[in-house]
Amino acid sequence: MAKFNPWEMACQQLDIVAEKINLDKNIHTKLRHCKRALIVSIPIRMDDGTVRVFEGYRVQHNLERGPAKGGIRYHPDVTLDEVKALAMWMTWKCAVVGIPYGGSKGGVVCDPTKMSLYEIEKLTRRYTSEISIIIGPEKDIPAPDVNTNPQVMAWIMDTYSMTAGYSVPGVVTGKPIDIGGSEGRLTATGRGVMFVINEALKYKKIKPTDCTVAIQGFGNVGSSTAQFLNELGCKIIGITDVSGGLFNKKGIDIPKLLEYVKKNPKKTIEGFAGADFVAGFKSANEELFQMDVDILAPCALENQITKENAPKIKAKIIAEGANGPTTPEADEIFHKNGVMVLPDILTNAGGVTVSYFEWVQDLQSHFWELEGIERELKRIMTKSFKDVLAIAEREKVDMRLAAYILAVSRVATAVKLRGVYP
Ligand code: NAD
User: Fold this and answer.
1) Which of 33, 102, 105, 289 has fewest C-beta within 10 Å?
2) From the CB of 91, is ligand 1 less than 6 Å away?
3) Rounded distance, CA 34 to CA 89, Å?
């Protein structure tokens, strides 16, 4: 089997929509390329005195609608093509929800679970310093992604500010609140996933209290999705993470699990008493994907739902908390089987939306209250869902293609208006 390449998948998704909307060939060609890709070496003196050199990337896909926006990922499997794909998906995501950003992404090939906190801090500071030539509040604004968090964002902000000579909170979002972060940012992606699922349930006339859910991943996105779906009244009966999976037909006690993971030094779900545990993510995911649930929410990594496992999936709704979890071949299977796929560029856009609020607050040095942030997030997510659904019904296409039609058309308009320089 050919090795999965996320960049090829992202281009394939663009090609499908380009054909559907008869996209101008020149614009299509332009959008198939990333504007900038920076590869950096990050030498770090490890705790044992040896020097290790890590490879890092920062990619900006398109800046036509505003400065670039995209998270930073620390993971051993990071590749340049993965970061390019994630940058392209950010372009579409910002366009779907109508916020004035282009798309970017960053990544460092490393395994933070095998590094000390001090090593992670040094890696973050050196990486920031290396990419500082292309980031900045008007240029490109990073945020958290897999294995990065508010503390990492604080180090990025501090490092960038040291060179500037003054505090530049607007260089990064997802920071701790005490240094210019926003209320509600930490859980914004999961809250947004819940708003989109809630709209889908209304459309399908299913009561949240009649709903069962399986979630892959229990990090930032998976855990907050679980928290808000639980508050909505849904029953979460399966959860997996890198350690394995928890299964309980009566429903997993989410507040207790959140508390457990917070205290667990490994930050995994392994060892939680309130459910059956299947060790190892491979077998656990296999079991999770075959569960008889209403909603399956992949909230871990890309390429999880493929043509191999899609036919066995029984869920009526797939809610993509993660970026790129479903391949185009699996999409086709779902479309044929009548499974509603809530696409990543819509479903997990709550994170970048509140990141946008954070950036605006930082630039104005004027901070908003949580209530207003949640209200505005709900407004944007429900409006975006309705915009995408209207296109899906009008064009008789699935929700992914509808979201792409909306996003690519908006970006194409900007490209056309600005023209080709020189
Ligand atoms: P995270 O590092 O906080 O959590 C990742 C989770 O996935 C962890 O629980 C980990 O154990 C689990 N995991 C890893 N490999 C797994 C596997 N093979 N099977 C099951 N679980 C596995 O990362 P995150 O920030 O929650 O990001 C998750 C996904 O959501 C990524 O695709 C990311 O790009 C996307 N996303 C994140 C944000 C955000 O605000 N953090 C916003 C939009 C999209």
Assistant:
1) 33
2) no
3) 11
**C-alpha dihedral (382, 150, 284, 197), degrees to nearest 10:** -10
Residue type, position 72, single letter: I
Summarised one tens digit per residue, pLDDT across range 336-378 is 999 999 999 999 999 999 999 999 999 999 999 999 999 999 9
Q: Is 287 exposed, middle or buried (0-12, 13-18, 19+ CB in 10 A)?
A: middle
The pair of three-digit structure tokens given for residue 383, joined into one six-digit string = 């409006």
> What is the per-residue pLDDT across 188-212, written as a single tens digit (0 to 9) for each?
999 999 999 999 999 999 999 999 9
Cα-to-centroid distance, 181 and ligand 1 (Å): 21
Average pLDDT in the chain: 97
User: Which of 242, 243, 261 has the most ligand 1 atoms within 8 A of CB, as the residue to mutate?
Assistant: 242
105 an active-site residue? yes
The confidence score (pLDDT) of residue 3 equals 83
Q: Indicate the residue type of 335.
A: H
**pTM beyond 0.90:** yes
CA–centroid distance, 298 to ligand 1, in Å, is 9
> Does residue 152 surpass a pLDDT of 80?
yes
- For position 166, what pLDDT does the model report? 98
**Which ligand 1 atom is nearest residue 143's CA?**
40
> Nearest residue CA, atom 4 of ligand 1?
219
| Cβ 200 under 6 angstroms from ligand 1 | no
- 146 C-beta closer than 6 A to ligand 1: yes
Predicted local confidence at residue 44, as pLDDT: 98
Ligand 1 atom with least separation from CA of 144: 41
223 lines ligand 1 (CB under 6 A): no
C-alpha to C-alpha distance for 322 and 371, rounded to whole angstroms? 26
Phi, psi (deg, nearest 5) at residue 125: -65, -40
Instruction: Kindly tell me if the per-residue pLDDT of 314 is higher than 70.
Output: yes
Q: Which residue has the tokens 């299977």?
A: 333
Q: Which amino acid is present at 402?
A: A
Residue 158: CB within 6 Å of ligand 1? no
Which H or E element spans position 182?
none
Please name each of the domains of the chain with its CATH number.
31-179 (3.40.50.10860), 188-347 (3.40.50.720)
Catalytic residue, from 69, 84, 105, 235: name it. Answer: 105
Please give the Cα distance from 67 to 233 (Å, whole number). Answer: 38
* Ligand 1 atom closest to residue 344's alpha carbon, by position in its atom list: 44
Residue 1 predicted with pLDDT over 90: no
Tell me the C-alpha to C-alpha distance, in Å, between residue 329 and each of 284, 338, 365, 399: 23, 15, 47, 15
